[in-house]
Amino acid sequence: MSDSFRWPAGADPFRFLEALDSKRARAWVDEQNARTRAALRDDDAYRALTARLAQAYLPRERPVIPTRWRDWAYDLWQDDLHPKGLWRRARWDDWRAGRPEWETLLDVDALGAQEGESWVFEHDAILYPDGDRALLSLSPGGADAVVVREFDLVQRRFVDGGFTIDEPGHHTVGWIDRDTVYVSWDRGEAHATAAGYPYDARRWVRGTPLADAPVVFRGEPGDISAGAWFDPIDGRHVAWRSVDFFDAHAYRLTDAGEWARYDVPTHVEVGFWEGWLVLEPRLDWECGGVRHAGGSLLAIREQAFLAGSRELTTLFAPRPSTSACTWTHTRTMLIASWLDDVHNRTMLWQPRQREDGAWTWDARPFDWPGDAQIDVEPVEATLNDDVYVDVDTYLDPPECWLADLSDRAADAPSRRLLLDRPPVRFDAAGLVVRRANARSRDGTVVPYTLIGPRDALDAPDAPDRADGRARVARPCLLSGYGGFAIPNLPGYSDALGIAWLERGGVAAFAHIRGGGEFGPAWHVDAQREHRQRSFDDFIAVAEDLIRTGVTTAAQLGIEGGSNGGLLVGACMVQRPELFGAVLCRVPLLDMRRYPKLHAGAAWLDEYGDPEDPREGAALAAYSPYHRVREGTAYPPLLLTTSTRDDRVHPAHARKMAARMHALGHERVWYWENTDGGHGSADDLERAESDAAEFGFLWAHLGPAPARG
């Protein structure tokens, strides 16, 4: 795209759609929803698919996989009668023995009906070690904004006069002790950062007005956010200042009652565990005369670090084929996970102090049979080394296992307990998974993953083809994300399997730059003014799918949400002839106004500043809302968003639909859910949305030939 492109002059005729609930905007939304409902949500096929998807989504008889807090198992149970959920608990030992007696703590649906609000249960923070009180965060309609209420777990009711914040906002609240909490209080735009988040922390004592609670830590208005928290296990008070979306300052409260900043660059994330500092540099970092690659995982005793030592232990060092490393921990083990060529790898680290006082780390891999993505999470890190192991493959239902990492054979089949293996929801017979590579415009090799029928994915001369038939082009749904260092990892999907693969479609997942598949450099390469590289990568994958005969342009659909919505919107505008349909969910599309809409100012470090001459030119060159043109034949487009989405403003999708209609593009449909935030509020709503979206795709890309 040309860097000479600039923002158009003149007023934006659809700016009125940024007013979230104005009468004029609501009338426009109602008109669009009625049009889309008639086209996509009012026939027998839609209703049948909705019913089947809802059957797959709602848990019904599925085993419960609870969270553990000390001796209790907690669960949010959702079913047909309780779509928002019953928050409940049982004794952990009873659950493990298979005879839990569930005690309902809060009926979220009943609370919503009583108060006339569509509450979504977001988070609970239980008082340690007493365990009889919790701070609950409830979201109206699934938005990021929450209210906070203190809950009595013994009396099973909200605490009168307790810690309560009734006005929804981006609040964070955490216990210090029974009568004191840290709170980052969202008091509204005048007291928030440009991104809409609080930038101070208050120490709030029970029985006192929140407005009188003293500010004990303060960031800067130019930060993204700031706050403080207390770790009751080791008595640590920590504060942070997020200076942009990726980088932050970390502070500790000294014995003198002062906040002292940890002496590391802002791109180094600071974590804490059992007297260790666990450091994660996002960029290359020279420390103590040693250069550590971005994406490494490093450790040092905190007291040694504070005394001036910079002798860091490298637990993980990335390679070109690996992602950055993430970590969690159990009682005695640090669990490090990363991607190697988009396949999950996990290593267990255990520190050990030698007789001479020096520390060393013992390591062993946590292997799992087969080619699966695994996620290892502690069950209750304050108690033991038990972990949940979520196992996800492309064509088999996900499994959840319970394992004890203190057993060195915990990954052996005989030493782990299967907790959940859902029933098969779709017919995967004859489906295969393949990897392929495309070459982007600048020569970068871009991998992608394919799922579909064998005759669609295997070349005619593939050695395991015995029937001699040629490849058959099929409808193909290509998804991508390419932002914020988040990898696009395919996995088992009820919706994709039932509504797409089972009917003969092919699914493709592009691992493009901007994502996190291959470490920090893979992300940085498409950051800010280099965003076009993400789009070039995605277009290269689309072209490769067509070149190799997997699909045709008329049969190729693309889909993405949030940053992925920006991706598919930009690619549609740049290469409209390449696609047969576009599904664009909760997208960013107006890249001139994005910092002024909801949380957009938090993403300046990802996309760049539209007011900066260089970065603004790059944004203007691809901003879909500004690049769409009259007279160009664009593929059919379905835009979806939510009124309650307080992360990505629905105005992005609203204005794009309005502009395209004004330019004469009739094959544009718009749907705005009044609930759900940046995602669906409940499973039934998700089933309805998915059924409409796949109906749209088949209407414009199908039908598929019979599966061979």
TrEMBL record:
> Which residues does the UniProt record annotate as the domain Peptidase S9 prolyl oligopeptidase catalytic?
498-702
| UniProt protein name | Peptidase S9
Listed SUPFAM superfamilies: alpha/beta-Hydrolases, Peptidase/esterase 'gauge' domain
Q: Which GO terms describe its molecular function?
A: oligopeptidase activity; serine-type endopeptidase activity
Q: Where is the Peptidase S9A N-terminal domain?
A: 11-258
Q: Name one Pfam family in it.
A: Peptidase_S9
Q: InterPro entries, from UniProt?
A: AB_hydrolase_fold, Pept_S9A_N, Peptidase_S9_cat, Peptidase_S9A, Prolyl_oligopep/macrocyclase
Q: Which GO terms describe its biological process?
A: proteolysis
Gene Ontology cellular-component terms for this entry are: cytosol
**Residues spanning the membrane:** none
- The question of whether Endoplasmic reticulum is a record keyword is answered with no
Q: Which keywords annotate this record?
A: Hydrolase, Protease, Serine protease
Q: Which organism is it from?
A: Burkholderia territorii
